[in-house]
Amino acid sequence: MDVILKYFNNLTPRQIQQFGMLEQLYNDWNSKINVVSRKDIDELYTRHVLHSLAIARVSNFKPGTKILDVGCGGGFPGIPLAIMFPDVQFTLVDSIGKKIKVVNEVANALGLTNVEGLQQRAEKLDQRFDFIVSRAVTAFPKFVALTRKLIDRKQKNELKNGIIYLKGGDFSDEIAMFNDRITLFNISDFFEEDFFETKKVVYMPI
User: Fold this and answer.
1) pLDDT band at 99; cut points 50, 70, 90
2) Cα end-to-end distance, the chain, whole Å
3) Half-sphere exposure (CA, 13 Å, Cβ side) for 85?
4) Is 131 left (phi over 0), alpha (psi -120 to 50) or beta?
5) Closest to 84 measured CA to CA, from 54, 48, 56, 117
6) How far apart are alpha carbons 9 and 4 in whole angstroms?
7) Where does residue 72 fall: left (phi above 0), alpha (psi -120 to 50 degrees), or beta otherwise?
8) Domain housing 135
9) Distance (Å, rounded) from C-alpha 150 to C-alpha 131?
10) 29, 63, 125, 143: which one has the fewest Cβ atoms less than 10 Å from its Cβ?
């Protein structure tokens, strides 16, 4: 929890309480359903929560913004972002029902009224969103093809509506066809921990 307060020192008491609850909630759920890898659960705040919040360094979403988290797993990056932006609506989708069960139970335990978890494939949705976020669920070109039709054309934020994707390692080949359209943010510019050395936020307006 200290690593969150290190970088986000303007949190409300409510947000601090909610972030503080994540460790026990995910430890409890992980003992029943493996939603966070065993080697990562002890590094939950750095490798999952803070990593998710790199998106909050790219955009300060305005109230009323609608965000879709595709392939959310146990709730990352959606759950930490929903705590950070309580006036933004988050829809978290995953094709695996037990993961969505964890998402909804965690959201309920935290009192997050701005989160809806759905067992659904993104391409089947008929809603529109301002932004689509994800943590590297598939190759970037495939992700763009699956989700671009879900982006709303009406703008609410300074950052133009589009895709915000968390990705690590060397993926230059994946994004080559979009090079003139995307912006890469080095997460190591936001957070100093070694874990983020090769991690990036990929932003592409649609």
Assistant:
1) very high
2) 35
3) 23
4) beta
5) 56
6) 8
7) alpha
8) 2-205
9) 9
10) 63
106-125 burial, b for 16+ CB within 10 Å, e for fewer?
bbeebebebbbbbeeebeeb
Task: Return the number of other C-beta atoms located less than 10 Å from residue 91's C-beta.
Answer: 23
> Structure tokens of 137?
């669920």
CATH number of the domain that 167 lies in? 3.40.50.150
Model pTM score: 0.96
Residues 6+ away with beta carbon under 8 Å from 182: 175, 202, 203, 204
How many separate domains does the chain show? 1
Q: Which pLDDT does position 32 carry in this prediction?
A: 86
Q: pLDDT value at position 138?
A: 84
Burial class (CB in 10 A: 0-12, 13-18, 19+), 39: exposed
Lay out the sheet containing 199-205: strands in order across: 115-119, 89-94, 66-70, 131-135, 162-168, 199-205, 183-186
pLDDT at residue 188 is higher than 80: yes
